[in-house]
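User: Fold both of these, please.

Assistant: Here is the first one.
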Amino acid sequence: MSGTLYLIGTPIGNLEDITLRQLRMLEEVDFICAEDTRVTLKLLNRYEIKKQLVSFHEHSSKADAQRIIDRLTSGESCGIVTDAGMPCISDPGEVLVKMCAESNIDIKVVPGPSAVVSAVALAGLGSGRFTFEGFLPVNKKERSERLEMLRGETADMVFYEAPHKLRTTLSDLAAEFGDDRRISLCRELTKIHEEVMRVTLGEAVQYYDENEPKGEFVLVVGGAPTEKVNDLTLEQAVEQVRRLIEMGERPVDACKAVAKETAYRKGELYSAVCGE
């Protein structure tokens, strides 16, 4: 019988941010796959856990992954961790999880801290929606295409960035989204020098032109503003509602969606559609 792959979250900075279940699973699995074994060893030593560590990082091959899968299919259990936070999100472990899923190996999650969710909670932008973009492409053409695609995104956008690339990324974001777009720069989350800067992109560019970026950053950029469409007649708005209903939306949800994009109230649209 095959073993189980456990996706185990680890602290994103403060080593006290670990759960009892995470500690128990780190002790119980047969071996641990780590992005950087030196980083994981510090965590294990802190809690006096002795376990075999297997390196699995961005330069690991499919053959390396297959060796881990072979151990799992033979009945061993494995915990996979990343250097900080939840593994397998913008992380080499994605490859291993995909291969395990294709091999019908049981996969379970042992959740923990997440830099993405922590930054969104701290950002103070309050849109209620966000999209995780991770690290932007390094290639200039690919980066430009990605940012152009995101220009009209109305949800807040979350990016990871290293200090030595921050200035370039801020300049690129400002050039694509405009200097007035809001951004929250979350630095060194849960660590001694944790800091959140809530400014515009233009102000962020200016600040880091004058100050050296230090630490790891999570950038939360406000989404594009939505504009109400005021030139639609009520009949045209009602027709949009009908089309959504035909596509399977509930009437109340269709009316709510169209109301967000027009000057008409949800109740007004609902009465016009359902009162006919």
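And the second sequence with its predicted structure:
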Amino acid sequence: MNYKKKTILDADLKGKKVLVRCDFNVPTDADGVITDDSRIVKTLPTIRYLLEQGAAVILCSHKGRPKNGYEEKYSLKVVQQRLSQLLGIPVDLASDVVGPEAQAKAAALQPGQVLLLENVRFVSGETKNNMELAEKYAALAEVFVNDAFGSCHRAHSSTVGVTSFLPAYSGLLVKKELDVMGKAISDPNRPLVLIMGGSKVSDKIGVIDHMLTLADHIIIGGGMSYTFTKAKGGSIGTSLCEEEQLDYCLKLLKKAEEMGVKIHLPVDCVCADHFAADAEPVIFDEGQIPENMMGLDIGPKTRENYAEVIKNAGTVIWNGPMGVFEFPAFAAGTEAVAKAMAESNAVTIVGGGDSAAAVEQMGYSGSITHVSTGGGASLEFFSGAELPGVAALLDA
């Protein structure tokens, strides 16, 4: 995949109307209050740069998965308010996406001003990459900028279709994602360590297969590790297991050995007799879990082993927690990996999703080289797949 793309630093923006696809899909609580505004904050450098260059800025984003047209809880009103505070200037909101109000407000927008369109998923056709809709987006502006890395793996009207009608550049956030992750794949500091966690092997097959040709070490943790344990003949009690992936796990272990890639599996695990925050944690050796117990985290010996591998790495890429980190009693494995990465001298990359949330929550994100804003997109990236939203941008 070519990830050398033209960025807003290459574009002539003075006096231009610029449509920016952002990722403002922020979490909100029951009262509609934003609980984490980091996605908004990470787009600010791009917005500020465009304003400094004398552009009139039109922002668009999705939020949630509305089913049929306008739904109050998915409105971008909360984003408009937070964005106005962060930028220190009023941000106008169009009550539609490409309708009469959006058209009128976009037409009247002056350099130095910011307009936010309503949730792009309120329009049918957006997720089907409808070209008529894409043309309507394009009619609002003269230049398109994609700064929504978290949506780059989806071919939608506001990420891909619109690039058929406007010159398309990457924003500073997408540029950073591609620079850091691109180098980790094309020219990594060695040894390159891939850490894979989360619940399912099947979600990570693409990444593991692709990275097997690039990585020196692969660390496995989380729910998916029990499928490997069972494949090797160990007993896993009531732990998560994908029976249909047992063969794959054995083939992978054999292939890794042939290719000289070291696969690290847990040697012990923290278990409980039921899935709950207040369950009593008990430690067992991996493969010796009693039939009434389930593994919920990697154990202390495994934490030490994994920290040692991370300490000696040149590049570390991590996707997926080591256990049920939402329960404090089963968060030590995920924390050990986060801490080891934060203290390491390696280039460290956290691939979005749950691992990004964990690193943020545990206070290590400031010590990680790069925390990706896209869980699904970073998985696709590291599996070697082409990201449609990136492929559609102008080549550098």
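Residues 272 and 279 are 6 Å apart (CA to CA).
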